[in-house]
Amino acid sequence: MKRLADDPILKRQLLSRYLWPRMGLSCGPDASLTVDMARLSHRYEVVRGEHFELAGPYETGQAFVFEHALSHSYYHYADTGDEQGVCIYRPHELIFQHDSLHYREDRLASLQALEPGGLLAIPYPALWQLMDRHPTLQTAVETLTLQNKRQVNELGRFLGMPAEMRFQKFREMHRTLLHRIPHRVQALHINVSKRQFNRFLTKE
Question: Domain range spanning residue 199?
Fold first, then answer.
C-alpha cells in the first residue's frame, strides 16, 4: 500500500459521509468520534489485485474502509495450497476480522483489492481505544460482528450446496457487482475450478 499525505479534513468528510451512515451512526465531520477516528487512521492507495493485508498475528491487524473500490477476503490453506473465498466487501464497509479484533486470535484470512482506490486504515489497538471512548462505536462494531458471524455460518451452508446451485446463488447475490468481480475471484468464492465456472457461465 502507498501511504497518502495526511489530510484530517478529508478523512473527517469520508467518515461522516460514507462510513458512519453505513454503520447506522449519525456523526458529522466535527463530531468527537469523527475527529478521533480521523486522527488515529491513515489514508492509503492500492492497485487492483494488491493484497493490503495478509493472514498473520492480531497485533498487526487493521480495520479498513474503502472509498469506492471493491475488495474480498479469502483463506489460503498452506498444507494443500488450496484457496477459498470468504467475503466480497463493498465500498464504505468497515472491514475487520472479528476473532482477531475481539478475541485477539490470529488473522486467518487475507484481504485483496479488486479495484484500484483509496482506503482508510486504523490499527486494532487504536480501534480498541476508540471503542472504549465512544460507546456508540462499540455498539455499532458489535452489531457488525454479529453480521460477520452469521456470514461465516452461511458460508458453511453455502459450500454444502451442489456446485451449480452455488454458482447461481453467488451470481444472484452479487448481480449488480459481477462486472467488477474477476471470473477467477468469482470461481474462488463459489469453490469451483475455472473450467467448471466457464461451463456454468455458458449455460446461464
Answer: 160-204
What does the alpha-carbon distance between residue 89 and residue 98 come to, in Å, rounded to a whole number? 15
Decide if 137 contacts 101 (C-beta within 8 A).
no
- DSSP H helices in the chain: 8-14, 20-22, 32-40, 98-103, 124-133, 135-159, 163-173, 183-190, 194-203
pLDDT in tens, 81-135: 899 999 999 999 999 999 999 999 999 999 999 999 999 999 999 999 999 999 9
170 in the same domain as 145? no
Is residue 58 domain-shared with residue 93, that is, in the same domain? yes
**62, amino acid identity:** Q
Cα(186)–Cα(171) distance, integer angstroms: 8
> Is the full-model pTM beyond 0.90?
yes
Which stretch of DSSP H or E encloses residue 120?
strand 117-123
CA distance 104 to 96: 12
